[in-house]
Amino acid sequence: MDSTLALLERIFLTVFPLVAIVGTGFFYARARHTDMSIANRINIDVFCPALIFSVMSAKSFDLPAYSSLAIGALIVVLGSGLLIWPLCRLLGVQLKTFLPPMMFNNSGNLGIPLLVLAFGEQALPAAVVLFLVENLLHFTVGIYMLDHRTNPFNVLRMPMIIATIAGLMFSTLDWTLPDAVQVPIDMLGQIAIPLMLFALGVRMTSVDFSNWKIGLWGTLLAPLSGILVALSLQPLLQLEPLQFSYLLIFGALPPAVLNYMMAERYQQEPQQVASIVLLGNIGSLVVIPLVLVFALRAG
Predict the structure, then answer these.
(1) How many domains are contained in the chain?
(2) Cβ neighbours of residue 72 under 8 Å, at least 6 residues apart?
(3) Which of 40, 42, 51, 119 is exposed most, by the fewest CB atoms within 10 A?
(4) C-alpha distances out from residue 291 to 27, 147, 206, 295, Å
(5) Cβ pair 131, 107 in contact under 8 A
(6) Which residues, in sequence order, are CB contacts of 103 under 8 Å at separation 6+?
(7) Average pLDDT value for residue range 102-126
(8) Three-state secondary-structure class, residue 105
């Protein structure tokens, strides 16, 4: 009985801070018109790269230790698309509309803080690796799915990729920055996670229930496909229990908000994608605690 209560308390302490910050963003945006476009751009261009560099450049970061996890994340993303591909015709929805949200999950806004709160600071490097794999695939495979004329090498210009390469160089070569430089980089990186969650809450004020049916299908299929792929991979990858827990939670994450931004940019039925993304994130309030029960015991 005591162990069950301890597990429930741990799940509550993991999920509630996320809900509280997302809720703060939601209710603030309901009370005051809130344009997060500038803040989101700064987060992508400055705060997230600072967080990535801070984690990757740390002496404790051991890239080979996360190689199997990175491979698992790659297969979860691509495998989810392959699983759901045949269902698109049955649901009567375009591939370009439905598949990206099913593949590219909320590993930034939700995944990083979720893993850190559930497993402590030791999970931050793994959370960043999962986020990088998903983000890299989104800006290459994901954009190519929407527009075959895109140049995948444009991803090398992204501040997050530049920060990753720089961080790995510092870690591999055992370089260090002066404290006067490293401390402000670390502080800037600490802004990224709460700002991601707050922005998610603001975005949820624009939920459109007119496409609720396709949104509901997405809410069910996105975590289900990711979990199935993650479970099927474990006999092959033989991840250690903690990393398997990370991958399982990664597979259960809802669609990334970036899917809506991409759909809007490429005019790929953005209202339908908005319903899929936002209802999926609301549905994760039920899915994530259930997955945490299994993941925390496995880890």
Answers:
(1) 1
(2) 230, 233, 237, 239, 243, 247
(3) 42
(4) 27, 34, 27, 6
(5) yes
(6) 77, 78, 80, 81, 137, 141, 142
(7) 90
(8) strand
Which residue in 79, 70, 91 sits closest to 225, CA to CA? 79
- Asked if 195 and 43 touch (Cβ cutoff 8 Å), the reply is yes
Cα(251)–Cα(238) distance, integer angstroms? 16
Is 121 a member of any domain?
A: yes
Residue 5 resides in a domain: no
Q: What digits encode the pLDDT tens for the residues 30-52?
A: 999 998 888 888 988 899 899 98
Range of the domain at 109: 36-196+208-298
Phi, psi of 263 (to 5 degrees): -60, -40
Q: Which residue has the tokens 């399982």?
A: 248
**Contact indicator for 97, 111 with CB cutoff of 8 Å:** no
Please tell me the distance from the alpha carbon of residue 60 to that of residue 43, in angstroms, as a whole number. 25
Query: What's the predicted TM-score (pTM) here?
Result: 0.86
Alpha carbon distance 75, 135 (integer Å):
14
For residue 36, give both structure tokens.
């997060």
pLDDT, residue 208, reads: 66
24 assigned to some structural domain: no
CATH at 284: 1.20.1530.20
Give domain status of residue 54, yes or no.
yes
Dihedral of CA atoms 168, 169, 173, 178 in degrees, nearest 10, equals -100
